[in-house]
Amino acid sequence: MKERRQRWRRDQVDAIVSALKIGKLPEGPFARTSEGRIDLRGVEIKVPLALEGFVAEGVDLSYASLGKLLCRRCVLADWIFDHSSVVLLNNGTEVSRSSFGNTRLTGSASTGGARFVECVFHSTEIEGAIFKEAEFLKCDFGGCALKNIEFGTSALQKVRINGRLEKCFFRGELRECDFVNAVFFDCAFYGAEFTGCSISDHALLFDNWRSAFQVIQEGSRSRSMSADSRQALEQMCRIWLKVSDYTKQELIDRRDLQEAYGEEVANEVYAYLAEIKSAAKAVG
Q: Which pTM was predicted?
């Protein structure tokens, strides 16, 4: 909101930056918000900020432009970043009960045991981010656009994702997550483990991927299907072959196939994969 940014004088911003640099959380020049949070809405901080061992609760940074914000071993609770832009570099910090609604988090990274607990990421734009050995607990990604995200061995528990995920990579544990309204495009699950997760009716989750892939690969040579569908399936098998030895489970989204190969080919290939999935379940 333009008026939130225009209200700040340069000396007021400098005072905020100076206080934060020495580990103090200033009240700011404005009265607290109606929710009782420190009002830093609309502040524009162009210099990188580093917070270490910082413990603070109840800060509103809506509509702020923060650049790089490095938080090392901090505890932040009830922080509002709605409609802001920030490169959040989180090292061993716990962020809880905080909101990143319509926030731009492109280029952010969380490492060293960083935790997000009961955080809301509604309509958040995250691209080119790295979450290494982080933990997301009871977080809600509603209507998000996630692209080129490396989740590494991060753990997601009771997380809801409603939106588009493109070129996202998972290697950790996904426990009791809600992916019913998530769409996965060109995502990879190298070593990831799904436990008690809900997925879309447009997706197939293979629990024993190595075994299933062998059946898919063998059947692709004898399956009666169109030449285009067979070519698409063979191409997918060549890709899957490279990762089948260390992929425990695999999720295949029909909408991903439709985008890559067109609806007719995708539906035929998906029907074949669904048969393999159904047969494996019946045997199991």
A: 0.90
